[in-house]
Structures are given as structure tokens and as C-alpha cells.
Specification:
By secondary structure, the protein is of the alpha/beta class. It has one domain: Rossmann fold (3-Layer(aba) Sandwich), CATH 3.40.50.720. The protein contains 10 helices and 8 strands. It has an 8-stranded mixed beta sheet, sandwiched between helices. The longest helix is centred in the C-terminal third of the chain and has 20 residues. The radius of gyration is 18 Å and the shape is globular. Bound molecules: zinc ion. Zinc ion binds next to helix 8.
Length: 267
């Protein structure tokens, strides 16, 4: 594959970057990424992955656009109210960059479909809003040997991390959080709110991490958890370690496949 004159122009500002160049752009155009969720995180992730020229992008979301989404889910517009989010996202991204092949999944990620869908992508980006789905992404990516990029945001805070990006001895999501919290234990954005720009900040971190990994550039967030507090405007990373007793990646793992009972009923 070599870049067309239009592509050399379109991507000219990133072609100039250290670690990028035409070879990096060709790598991105040959890459495929599944983004699970098209909300506040997904809006930033999808816009930047598509704009950068990730060649094939899967867009997954079962929901339709609601009025209360528009304050943060900037992929969707007032004219999209009532439409499937995957359709409004696809239209927006197609208009942004015709180089990108877009595949839509108007369904939730479930134990029954996770392995098949995730297997056909090089990497997965977490833009979901619940713990059960996140644990499912973690476990399926581990079993498939796929990297995944985590992010979550609530109220004025957010966090991000990268998993299975090839660094030996780096932890998985279960090493850090062991099991999903009980329903109701952690509040949702419908209860405590969220600022759209805070979700966009975390989604942008995830997009950067994913693009760096696809290029093989820089140092990622494996073994580190990024913690963002918008009210005090602090961004820090803390070291996170592998748990030898982890049920998935520990010394005596108990999870060898995606069994429905390991994920909350709401998936
Ligand atoms: Zn683990």
C-alpha cells in the first residue's frame, strides 16, 4: 500500500511526527479497532481514530440518541434524536474520513458474542458505561491476545489504563479491580452527573494510547493507572501491579473461557 496524493495531504501534520511517517500511516490504515460505546468517551475516541485514518473501525452500541445525551455525546446532533447511535456515529465518521471502513453493531457486548466480534479486530477501546461489559472486554481480550484501552469518567473525574499491550508482568483489569462492584455500589452519570469535556479528555487519552500502540510509538499506560481530577486540574499516574492471585492472569487462573455466570446479569 502506498499513500495517494490526497492521503499525503490529509495526514500531512501527523506524517511529520516522530514515530509516524508514511510507514506509520500505512500501519494505521491497515489496522482495525472496535470501540465499545458511542457516548461521551466514544465520541472523542471515534472522532480521533477515524480522523487519524485507522482503516477499519467497529462501532458498537445498542442505544438510540436521547436529548440528555447531547450535552456530552458530541458525535450525535439534535437532528439524530431517536436514531440508533451506531447509525448517527457512522454517518458523522463517514463524512469526516472516507478512507475508513465503518462496521456497526447495534447490540450490547455479551458473553455470547464477545469472542467472535473481538477476534476480528486488532485492538479494543472501552467506551462503555458499566463494569460487567468492562470485565467482559478484559477477559475476552486476554483469551484472544488482543490489547485493550480502558477509560471511565464520572462527575469531574476520570481514569484510563492500557492492557495486554505486550509489556511483560503488566497487570490486567481484574488484577486491579478483581470483580465487578455490586449493582448500585458505584453511582452512574444519571445519578451524579458528568461534564462532557471531562469524558472527552479521557476518551482522547484512550485514542492517543490506541494510536501509539498501533504505531509502536512511545510508552503506554501498561502498569499505570492515569487519574484525572478536573476540579483541581490534576493528572497523575499511579503504578499498578499484577496480582499473582488474579483469577484471569494469575498463577492459578480459574477463568479459561467466557462463561456467562462471570458477568452480571445486565450484560
Ligand atoms: Zn489479572
Amino acid at each position: 500500500m502506498s499513500l495517494s496524493p490526497e492521503q499525503l495531504e490529509r495526514y500531512s501534520r501527523q506524517l511529520l511526527l516522530d514515530g509516524f511517517g508514511a510507514a506509520g500511516q500505512e500501519k494505521l490504515l491497515r489496522s482495525s479497532v472496535l470501540v465499545v460505546g458511542t457516548g461521551g468517551l466514544g465520541s472523542a475516541i471515534l472522532n480521533y481514530l477515524a480522523a487519524a485514518g485507522v482503516g477499519r473501525i467497529g462501532i458498537m452500541d445498542a442505544d438510540r440518541v436521547e436529548q440528555s445525551n447531547l450535552q456530552r455525546q458530541v458525535l450525535h446532533t439534535t437532528g439524530d434524536l431517536g436514531r440508533l447511535k451506531v447509525e448517527s456515529a457512522r454517518d458523522r465518521l463517514r463524512a469526516l474520513n472516507p478512507d475508513v471502513v465503518l462496521e456497526t453493531f447495534a447490540e450490547r457486548l455479551r458473553p455470547s458474542n464477545a469472542m467472535t466480534i473481538l477476534a476480528s479486530y486488532d485492538a479494543v477501546v472501552d467506551a462503555c458505561d458499566n463494569f460487567a461489559t468492562r470485565f467482559l472486554i478484559n477477559d475476552a481480550c486476554f483469551l484472544l491476545g488482543r490489547p485493550w484501552f480502558h477509560g471511565s469518567a464520572l462527575a469531574w473525574q476520570g481514569q484510563a489504563a492500557s492492557f495486554f499491550t505486550g509489556e511483560p508482568e503488566s497487570p490486567c483489569y481484574r488484577c486491579i479491580f478483581s470483580a465487578p462492584p455490586a449493582p448500585g455500589e458505584v453511582p452512574t452519570s444519571a445519578q451524579v452527573g458528568i461534564l462532557g469535556a471531562v469524558a472527552a479528555f479521557i476518551g482522547t487519552v484512550e485514542a492517543v494510547e490506541c494510536i501509539k500502540h498501533l504505531l509502536g510509538a512511545g510508552k503506554g499506560l501498561a502498569g499505570r493507572l492515569l487519574i484525572y481530577d478536573a476540579l483541581t486540574m490534576s493528572v497523575r499516574t499511579i503504578a499498578v501491579r499484577r496480582n499473582p492471585a488474579c483469577l484471569l492472569c494469575g498463577r492459578s487462573p480459574a477463568i479459561h473461557s467466557i462463561a456467562k455466570e462471570n458477568y452480571a446479569a445486565d450484560t
